Amino acid sequence: MASYSTNEFKSGLKVMLDGDPCIILENEFVKPGKGQAFNRVKLRNLKTNRVWEKTYKSGDSLEGADVFDRDMQYLYNDGEFFHFMEPENFEQHQASSSTVGDAALWLREQDTCTVTLYNGAPLAVTPPNFVELEIIETEPGVRGDTATGGTKPARLSTGATVKVPLFVNQGEIVKCDTRSGEYVSRVKA
Amino acid sequence: MPALAWQPSASLANLRHRAQILAQIRAHFASQGVLEVETPQLCPATVTDPHLSSIGVPGYGYLQTSPEYTMKRLLAAGSGSIYQIARVFRAGEVGRRHNPEFTLLEWYRLGFTPDQLIDEVAAIACIALGETATVRHRYRDLFRAHLDLDPLCCPIDALSAAARRHLDLAFADADRDTWLELLMSHVIEPKLGIDELSFVVDYPPSQAALARLRMDADGQKVASRFELYHRGVELANGYHELLDVDEQRARFAADLRERERLGLPAIPLDRHFLAALEFGLPDCSGVALGLDRLVMLAVGATSLPEVMAFPASHL
């Protein structure tokens, strides 16, 4: 991999730090009018999600990390591994439950999600920002109550639980934001 | 490209505010009989400071990082007190508070002590910020108060240990001034001038740049240099100007040796500047103030693009 100097640091750049792949979140250039320049860099370890704030001398460099995001189709879960496929070349990848993490709650077979590969193996899985899923369990709806703003829990076909308005019923399809875990709207069948 | 990417990054209200501050600064200097001058931004020679990187223009020389050398040639020629609102250029300086091209308000006052010039810097800052109290701190006292260290004589290990207590550092060896600059810019500076104009005086001799040296009240040799901080932002840097041409030559030579050690390109010395010093510079104090940053604080902004029409990110 190429190495990157502090003046090439920007948010989103993936670099190696202490043997682990990290993503740069923020890079602040700090320089006295007279004197040495520094870069104050906030990084997130992509394996542990730990956030670091490190100070570098400007001009220092870090090795790039072999980390890429790929759109893949989620195929199935065999009880131990989640299986994904790259749609262009049909290449399949398997990821453990700990790699998939909470994304598993939003994954429906055949849907497309983002798989982050590190040295060719899945490192993380990100569901689409918005998903449309069926409610498989919730208390019966309150007819006509669209104004009071009350909510109730609803379990979705993929396992996630979201708060939905009282008028939404079991069996309906709802649109949710996977980043916040919140209900967005009902989807007309 | 987004459809409105051609538009300025600063609001028109901020640009009007900026123009108003510029007009008031010009009025101040006119009332004091200080002459406005313009000197070249493009010169065959440039600054030797190892921590400043000039932008080279093939066939012509360098875009200037400050108008200091040419303004001092005017002073030696008998101009009297002068000021300039100068566009200057520094390679590689990009960030919330840095832009490779920016505006310096630089001025020199004949016969002024640094203390008198500090009063005028405060008056200029108040033009933009409104009435603001002023405090003066010795560099040495700040390190004692914030870090319990004497920056002039403590061992270098004590500086690096203090830095490691406050920061997660990704580098190991560094010289004494690197540690001092790191502690100043990362630990002390953010706490300076929260409500007031905070002037730091009496720098370590190794950070004298173009300031003369003197003995302070404790009998320690210090640089007759000051800086202004407000709300954690470095705003201005001033000197009781060095007049001794031999000392100036020695500092240039030291800079060039340091540049060689760091693997940086050699810089042609400004022989006209040295000849002017040889002829004789009148006793004076001078200061450079970052005008974009002053306007930024005046309008309550937190980044330079809010007060510059077209920063590097919009070109």
From TrEMBL, chain A:
GO molecular function: translation elongation factor activity
SUPFAM superfamilies: Nucleic acid-binding proteins, Translation proteins SH3-like domain
Translation elongation factor P/YeiP central domain sequence ranges: 69-123
Protein's cellular compartments: Cytoplasm
Main localization category: cytoplasm
One annotated GO biological process: peptide biosynthetic process
Cellular component terms (Gene Ontology): cytosol
Pathway: Protein biosynthesis; polypeptide chain elongation
Protein's name according to its UniProt entry: Elongation factor P
Domain Elongation factor P C-terminal: 131-186
Keyword vocabulary terms for this entry: Cytoplasm, Elongation factor, Protein biosynthesis
Protein's job: Involved in peptide bond synthesis. Stimulates efficient translation and peptide-bond synthesis on native or reconstituted 70S ribosomes in vitro. Probably functions indirectly by altering the affinity of the ribosome for aminoacyl-tRNA, thus increasing their reactivity as acceptors for peptidyl transferase.
PANTHER family tied to this protein: ELONGATION FACTOR P, ELONGATION FACTOR P (EF-P) FAMILY PROTEIN
Keyword Repeat included in the entry's annotation: no
Family: Belongs to the elongation factor P family.
